[in-house]
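U., I forgot to send this yesterday:
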Amino acid sequence: MRKLSGLEALADLHQSMGGERANAEGPSEESGASEPKLGPSCLYVSRDRKARKGKEVTLVEGFDQDVHEDLASAMAKSLKVHCGVGGGWKDGVILLQGDHRERASAWLQAQGYQVKHKGG
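Result:
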């Protein structure tokens, strides 16, 4: 086995084993189709207390239940840890116990999501 002396040698080895050589400019646009988005384009953050015996909850909506289930459940866990509260993921909505609209929206924007406030 020979010792590789750089990234070009590693790329040559990868290509000789049947792999494709990557372009230096990034992924090629030959196919015309763009990469699918990992998450929803816009999330809505609101506060609610209906049907919860007067207890406030923060809702994060905008996930498609079928498509983004794994992403939303992982995001719900991270948001709960960040805000230090309980909550969960149910019916396409992340629930956080208490009024944490500002904290949740700041965290979501830091993660790269577009956030809109809903309600008053």
